[in-house]
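User: Reviewer 2 asked us to show a designed sequence for the structure in our supplementary figure. I'm pasting the structure tokens here. Could you produce the per-position amino acids so we can include them in the response letter?
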């Protein structure tokens, strides 16, 4: 049992050490990346909505 506890303690110490090496983005970078994602999602959803309407009208014309 003691060996398991020692391994767990060592694991969490190593995790903490690795997290200290992480290059965390600045607030400005996070806001910029979020804006890019939101704009991309908006453009893609508009495009897919447009394609859906066009295909719906085409299918409706074919099936009449």
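Assistant: Here is a per-position design you can include in the supplement:
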């Amino acid at each position: 049992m003691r060996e398991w506890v020692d391994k767990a303690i060592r694991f969490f110490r190593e995790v903490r050490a690795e997290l200290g090496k992480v290059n965390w983005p600045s607030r400005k970078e996070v806001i910029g990346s979020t804006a890019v994602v939101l704009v991309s999602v908006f453009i893609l959803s508009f495009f897919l909505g447009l394609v859906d309407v066009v295909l719906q009208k085409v299918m409706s014309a074919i099936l009449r």
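For the response letter, you might also mention the following. The chain has a mean pLDDT of 95. The two ends are 74 Å apart (CA to CA).
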